[in-house]
Amino acid sequence: MTDKQSDIAAHNTAVIIVAAGKGLRAASSGSAGNTPKQYRIVGKENILSQCVMQFSSCDEISSIVVVIGADDHDRFHEAGIDTSCVLVTKGGATRQASVLAGLDKLAEARAKPDFVLIHDAARPFVGADMIRLTIESIAKHGTALPVLPLSDTIKQVSGHGVVEQTPDRSKLFAAQTPQGFVFSEILAAHRKAAREPSVTFTDDASIAEWAGISVHTIDGDPRNFKITTPDDFVRAEMQLGMSKPMETRTGQGFDVHRFTSGDHVILGGVKIPHDKALSGHSDADVLLHAITDALYGAIADGDIGAHFPPSDPQWKGADSSVFLEDAVTRVRNRGGEITFLDATILCETPKIGPHRDKIRNRIAEMTGVAVERIAVKATTTEQLGFTGRREGIAAMALATIRLSVEN
After folding, report:
1. Are 296 and 251 in contact (CB under 8 A)?
2. Topology annotation, domain 246-404
3. pTM for the structure as a whole
4. pLDDT means per 10 residues in the chain (407 residues)?
5. Which ranges in the chain are annotated with CATH 3.90.550.10?
């Protein structure tokens, strides 16, 4: 045993894995719907399981606390994590509150740790070397913060979109986890920060700095990246050597429905009061029809008329969400991922603006695509054509998907 190994072994080191987030920026990827990213499968295991295994396989780690969301008890147990090797506690409304919950859980233990590592569950590729390097730094300096140098030039921009200054890139680094501390010191710092609700922090090193603890940096690892967006899942599978060649496809859809007597129209699944209704075999949701056909087009799989013929009485008055959900299922059954939806409504009336956000949120619910990846616009035709004469409404849509080349 080397001197370094002996020094590390002399200390009781715990790790807190923070897994209480909702992972909203990754929610549009694949068929997982609104499943938090830490419970998503990458390769053959879910992200959280992989993260736990990285630490449980290290002899230097004496205990593991996993902090989960208040509503994620069932998800955690379905993840198949060996609960005999971890402690589980519920997190708070923020990452800061969740970390404190994990620290408090360790403080209740009969044998409190000397050192603690705090790690984000969304970084499943942390390696044994990084874990050991972090513990070595705590033993030597009292803290450890893995960092990576920035390759891009950084600009500080005002709220009006004007560059204010260009910071010196040589002094700027991207922080990673695990971040390591003397347990008693970071526990005291977190408890102090919790008594100051006007002060918030994005990582534990920031809390340590605020509390007057000197934070020592170590070399980070580019492979230890944080899974945040749908594209990061592709990168993760590439890192595991399991990704398949993907291609980007775009499909377009167009639909028209005439006005008839009534007191509302349905657009994007939202009922909008109006002095007329739209005529159609189903609920005549012209917007959902256009988006549905755009998705069918992206996988070259016919159109609404082919899958739901108007001659079939079972679709009389049907909710158009049925059509959209079928198209979404067909895309995902082929291993596809919907990355963006862009739609335009053409009409003189009703006014779409007041209902735009509600429509976008409703489409997000039906498709499992993040609302930030759904665009809904409206325009008139300057009183030209049938829409200009207020005889009906038209809608156009584009759907962008990623699809495995083999499919």
Report:
1. yes
2. 60s Ribosomal Protein L30; Chain: A; (3.30.1330)
3. 0.61
4. 54 95 58 75 89 94 96 90 89 96 94 96 94 97 96 89 92 96 98 92 96 97 91 83 75 96 95 94 95 96 92 90 94 89 96 95 92 95 94 97 77
5. 3-239
